[in-house]
């Protein structure tokens, strides 16, 4: 039976405590989902997915490629709709999130305090190639600009899937699409800056120098990619090996490598650490001393600390706390307490990349409102080279 190009709405029984798409899809994991009216829309695996949610079900609708469109990649016609399986895989619905929250809460008072208002935050099981390129775009960037860049990549280099209400939707380009002499210069014209070189070079390496299943060999063998063939056991990597392999690519530092491991390769223990997470570690876990630089040893120590605390899905727990501190979700985290005539207001002062609290007293008030740190959506730890360049420029200006 040939599939209808646009399916009817269907539904999966999923409680909001197990999956909240309004949080999960906008907390900096994937950068291609768009909120259109009350629906979340994205192209995935050769189709357009539209999602919405109520208290008990995830509702989904599929738009398949238009056969008459020109200039698209070669797309085989499907005779079986595997979208339900895709959703189970993409949102890792085989994992009992409530049990994981209970486990993390039992060992971590800070998680136990913040988790009730941030239930249903799941790690997305994304395509490894897309995650790699998207997080290369994340360098010195914020969620809005990363999303714009990823959208441009799809529009200029990806296959056109279909139109919805006259709006074209493109899938993510593959490595071959981003090779060629004109890619880097075109990406620079599109506003990618220095990332253009990293993207073009990474695409060339993956397309021309690595085996076709190279990224799959870096994947957690317990969490294979959707529709992909699992690499032979002899070629399986460990999390640490996958991380080291990714570091060899242009534009990939420790944080980007961990983002790819966690969100593209299924390594749940991976903990991406940027200045935002470093501030959480210092503020909420009294980890380490204040420092002007953040080196690899400190990076590894923070990740190991959280892995020891939270276990094999430490990256999932980290994502909950990271989301709780995002400015976009600050309205969920207000806590009011009664005082006796004095309000102590905590302000955050940033000096040399280190955030520290400064308190000031306000007399004749009865309520204190304490907000968690409202950091940027995406903060980046400067590398040693970047720190040296900044110091050099600073001396030059002086």
Concise account of the structure shown:
Residues 377-387 have a biased composition (Basic and acidic residues). It contains 15 helices and eleven strands.
**How much β-strand is present in the residues?**
15-25%
Order of helices and strands: EHEEEEHHHHHEEHHHHHHHHEEEEH
The CATH architecture classification of the largest domain is: Orthogonal Bundle
- Sheet having the most strands: 5 strands, antiparallel
CA-based shape: globular
Rounded to an integer in angstroms, the radius of gyration calculated over CA atoms is: 22 Å
Strand order of the largest sheet: 1-5-4-3-2
Number of strands: 11
Q: Low-confidence parts, pLDDT < 50 over ≥5 residues?
A: 68-77, 334-398
Give the total of domains: 2
- Helix content class: 25-40%
Structural class: alpha+beta
What fold name stands as the CATH topology of the largest domain?
Endonuclease III, domain 1
Look at the structure and give the mean pLDDT.
81
Task: Please give the alpha-carbon distance between the first and last residues.
Answer: 73 Å
**Name of the CATH first level of the largest domain:** Mainly Alpha
Oligomer: single chain
Write the CATH homologous superfamily of the largest domain: Hypothetical protein, domain 2
Given the structure, what is the number of helices?
15
Outline the structure in words.
Helices cover 37% and strands 16% of the residues. The protein has 398 residues and is an alpha+beta fold. The chain has two domains: 10-324, Hypothetical protein, domain 2 (Endonuclease III, domain 1), CATH 1.10.340.30; 338-397, no CATH class. The strands form four sheets. A five-stranded antiparallel β-sheet has the order 1-5-4-3-2, with no helix packed on it. A two-stranded antiparallel ribbon has the order 6-7. The chain has a two-stranded antiparallel ribbon with strand order 8-11. Strand 2 and strand 3 (39-44) form a beta hairpin. Mean pLDDT is 81; it is low at 68-77 and 334-398. Residues 388-398 have a biased composition (Basic residues).
């Amino acid at each position: 039976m040939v599939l209808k190009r646009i399916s009817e709405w269907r539904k999966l029984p999923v409680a909001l405590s197990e999956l909240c798409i309004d949080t999960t899809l906008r907390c900096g994991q994937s950068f291609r989902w768009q909120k259109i009216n009350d629906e979340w829309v994205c192209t995935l695996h050769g189709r357009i997915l539209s999602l919405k949610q109520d208290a008990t079900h995830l509702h989904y609708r599929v738009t398949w490629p238009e056969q008459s469109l020109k200039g698209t990649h070669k797309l085989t016609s499907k005779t079986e709709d595997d979208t339900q399986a895709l959703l189970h895989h993409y949102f890792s619905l085989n994992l009992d999130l409530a049990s994981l929250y209970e486990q993390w809460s039992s060992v971590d008072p800070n998680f136990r305090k913040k988790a009730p208002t941030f239930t249903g935050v799941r790690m997305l099981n994304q395509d490894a190639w897309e995650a790699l390129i998207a997080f290369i775009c994340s360098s010195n960037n914020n969620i809005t600009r990363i999303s714009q860049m990823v959208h441009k990549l799809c529009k200029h280099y990806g296959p056109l899937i279909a139109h919805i209400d006259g709006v074209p939707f493109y899938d993510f380009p593959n490595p071959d699409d981003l090779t060629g002499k004109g890619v880097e210069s075109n990406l620079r014209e599109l506003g990618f800056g220095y990332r253009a070189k990293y993207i073009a070079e990474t695409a060339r390496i993956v397309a021309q120098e690595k085996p076709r299943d190279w990224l799959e060999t870096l994947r957690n063998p317990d969490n294979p990619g959707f529709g992909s063939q699992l690499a032979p056991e002899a070629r399986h990597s460990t999390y640490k090996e996958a991380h080291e392999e990714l570091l060899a690519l242009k534009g990939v530092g420790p944080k980007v490598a961990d983002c790819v491991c966690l969100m593209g390769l299924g390594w749940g223990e991976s903990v991406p650490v940027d200045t935002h997470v470093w501030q959480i570690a210092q503020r909420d876990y009294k980890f380490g001393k204040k420092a002007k630089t953040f080196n690899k040893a400190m990076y590894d120590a923070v990740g190991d600390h959280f892995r020891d605390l939270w276990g094999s899905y430490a990256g999932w727990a980290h994502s909950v706390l990271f989301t709780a501190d995002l400015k976009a979700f600050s309205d969920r985290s207000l806590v009011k307490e009664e005082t006796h005539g004095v309000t102590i207001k905590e302000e955050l002062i940033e000096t040399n990349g280190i955030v520290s609290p400064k308190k000031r007293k306000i007399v004749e008030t009865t309520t204190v409102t304490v907000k968690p740190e409202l950091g940027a959506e995406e903060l980046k730890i400067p590398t040693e080279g970047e720190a040296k360049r900044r110091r050099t420029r600073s001396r030059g200006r002086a």
